[in-house]
Amino acid sequence: MRIVSCFMFVVVALFAFGSPGAEAQDRAVPANRAQVQLSFAPIVRETSGAVVNVYATRSERRQNAGMEEFFRRFFGEGGPSVPPGRSQSSLGSGVIVDPAGLVITNNHVIENMSDVKVALADRREFEAEIVLRDPRSDLAVLKLKNPADLQVIELGDSEALQVGDLVLAVGNPFGVGQTVTQGIVSALARTQVGISDYQFFIQTDAAINPGNSGGALIDMNGRLVGINTAIFSRSGGNIGIGFAIPSSMVRVVLNSARNGARNVVRPWLGARLQSVDGEIASSIGLPRPTGVLVTSVYDKGPAADAGLKRGDAILAVDGQSVDNPDGFGYRFTLKGIQGQTPLTILRDGKQINISVRLLPPPENPSRSPVKVTSRSPLSGATLVNMSPAVAEELQIDISDDGVVVADLDENGIAASVGFQKGDQIVAINGERLTSTKDVDRLTRRGGGYWEMTINRGGRVFTTVLGR
Question: Are 198 and 329 in contact (CB under 8 A)?
Fold first, then answer.
């Protein structure tokens, strides 16, 4: 089976929806035939008008003759080909969550796209600015240009959901217009799904299909409790296992956008964690595998200041139990970056509580970014100095070695020869790097051969590029 993100590269079709609003309903099992025949139409009519169609395009320019000459120089005539210019488009859904024109959608719907438009239920279209991308949660916030008379969906409380609750999934799959499907919450706190860094999903059997990405998961109060993002499928079609990002995480991302941030700043623990399996649980005195094991502590971080030690097992964040690093990351992120939060830990067979300060990761040393423009295999790469903030942002281990690839021009040489974001460039031609100043100096020397020592995910290797 595979995880399929629910968006499409297709031509846009518009759709028609109703108007928003919500009326609370109590949970209850149908008591008679008349109740079984009740309709969801009022909830759909009062909320689906805030679900919009998001479509984005990007024009890719053909690389210039100088780039082609570089490819021939380093790889010969049999090297990588230079792709022709082309245009890409993507199609997904979104949800209006603020009358000022803020729309929440999936990051993968607008990833690498430059021109974004939003089509409303009443057939109006707006150009949209991407105000915040958060690949780690797979969420993005758009801002409609010159919005007026918008309908919105109120954010609900995903923490109050229970397995068995009824939900509606609203979106625009296949570009055919509005679709609404009904189902139940079949699981909560799903992790290790392989969609984003913060894996903590609502699972539902409400049919979610291609094009639903960024659409709304709505509870019976007519409130947004999740953003539909992916399905688990053999064929790419719906088989009744869909995943939505909880509204609790949506609120964190949305608040960052409202405060003018371009990125979501998360609290930093300053410790490395791993899951607790049966063998580890038995060795530390846990009756079952639960919590996360602390495998190392950064000596200048909040974890060290709070007294967290290697070998501690974190069982809960502010009373909410955690079962793996994904669950911990989600719970810890929701606490924000102010004040403190209590952690329940197991140490030497005893449970104790400690308080950890909620601080953003420090950017020390400063990034001092350098974009390589000289003729070298790193051309088109932007490199920065390593710091806890960079390591947290790129989800790599903190290291004293080298500088880090923070961004890549997708039409640049560095991307073409296989460099990746998060790569640590340890040495160039045998000379170890201590800062981005070294990169600028060494890449301007030129030469026909380049020996690069790279740390990728903890694996250090050396490669020679040239002809």
Answer: yes
Would you name the residues annotated as active-site residues? 108, 138, 213
Q: pLDDT tens digit string along 169-206?
A: 998 755 567 788 889 998 887 665 554 555 678 998 88
Tokens linked to 157: 């409380």
Hey, how many other C-beta atoms are within 10 angstroms of the C-beta on 275? 18
Following DSSP, what letter does each residue of 335-347 receive, concatenated?
T-SSSEEEEEEEE
Residue 66 neighbours by CB distance under 10 Å: 8
> Which residues, including other chains, have CB under 8 Å from residue 226's CB and lie 6 or more apart?
158, 167, 202, 204, 216, 217, 244, 245, 246, 247, 250
Tens digits of residue pLDDT in 313-355: 999 999 999 998 988 999 999 999 999 999 999 999 999 999 9
For 357, the enclosing helix (H) or strand (E) is: strand 350-357
Distances in Å between the alpha carbon of 417 and those of 25, 284, 411, 449, 454? 57, 46, 11, 14, 13
**CA 66, CA 89: separation in Å to the nearest integer?**
28
User: Do residues 186 and 231 touch, judged by C-beta distance below 8 A?
Assistant: no
Whole-angstrom distance, CA of residue 94 vs CA of residue 140: 10
Write the burial class of residue 110 (CB in 10 Å: 0-12 exposed, 13-18 middle, 19+ buried).
Answer: buried
pTM for this prediction: 0.78
